[in-house]
Amino acid sequence: MTRKTENFSRTARHPLRKTRQSPIDVPPKARRKAAPKPPTLEEAKKTPLPILNGAERTRLRGEAHSLKPVVLIGENGVSEGVIQAVHEALCQHELIKVRMHDPEDKHAAAEYLAAEAHAVLLGLRGHTVILYRPFLKV
């Protein structure tokens, strides 16, 4: 018994067995377009940061409540590698938490990290910094 159905190959099969599409009949998959490259830190620093009022800061801190820290800063403190990691996390997530390990001056470290990573410092709770930078369209 042969059967021809649209998009199925012409093969003899048992009537109760499901027919599979022949690899010859399958159109090639459309190639995905490559995701655009995220901007570099230098390109990000060229765009101005938003000026947030108190209500917007409060709303963003509320959204960050359920987030987990995505970058951890060790005993060596804020380094170039940490700043690059924060930049990459901000390119992906827009709102992140950064956890510091027992800094000497956590307020100064948080302000320095926000300035170097070109982000808005939303708050500092304990040793956790909340940073925000809207997605950049470069």
Write structural notes for this entry.
With 138 residues, this protein is an alpha+beta fold. The protein has a domain of 92 residues: YhbY-like (Translation Initiation Factor IF3, 2-Layer Sandwich), CATH 3.30.110.60. The chain is 30% helix and 17% strand. The chain contains four helices and six strands; from the N terminus they run ββααβαβαββ. The strands form two sheets. Strands 3-4-6-5 form a four-stranded mixed β-sheet, sandwiched between helices. β5 and β6 form a beta hairpin. The longest helix has 14 residues. It is elongated. The mean pLDDT is 85.
Task: Give the helices and strands, then pairings.
Blueprint (H helix, E strand, L loop, with lengths): L1 E2 L7 E2 L28 H6 L7 H11 L6 E3 L6 H14 L1 E6 L5 H11 L3 E6 L2 E5 L6
Parallel strand pairs: 3-4
Antiparallel strand pairs: 1-2, 4-6, 5-6
| CATH architecture descriptor of the domain at 41-132 | 2-Layer Sandwich
Low-pLDDT parts are none
Radius of gyration: 25 Å
The H-level CATH homologous superfamily of the domain at 41-132, spelled out, is YhbY-like
Briefly, what CATH class of the domain at 41-132?
Answer: Alpha Beta
Tell me what portion of residues adopts beta-strand conformation: 15-25%
Percent of residues in helices: 25-40%
Order of strands, main sheet, comes to 3-4-6-5
Largest sheet: 4 strands, mixed
So what's the overall shape? elongated
Would you tell me which CATH topology of the domain at 41-132 applies? Translation Initiation Factor IF3
Distance between the termini: 61 Å
* SSE run: EEHHEHEHEE
Average pLDDT, rounded to a whole number, is 85
Global structural class: alpha+beta
**Helical segment tally?**
4
How many individual β-strands? 6
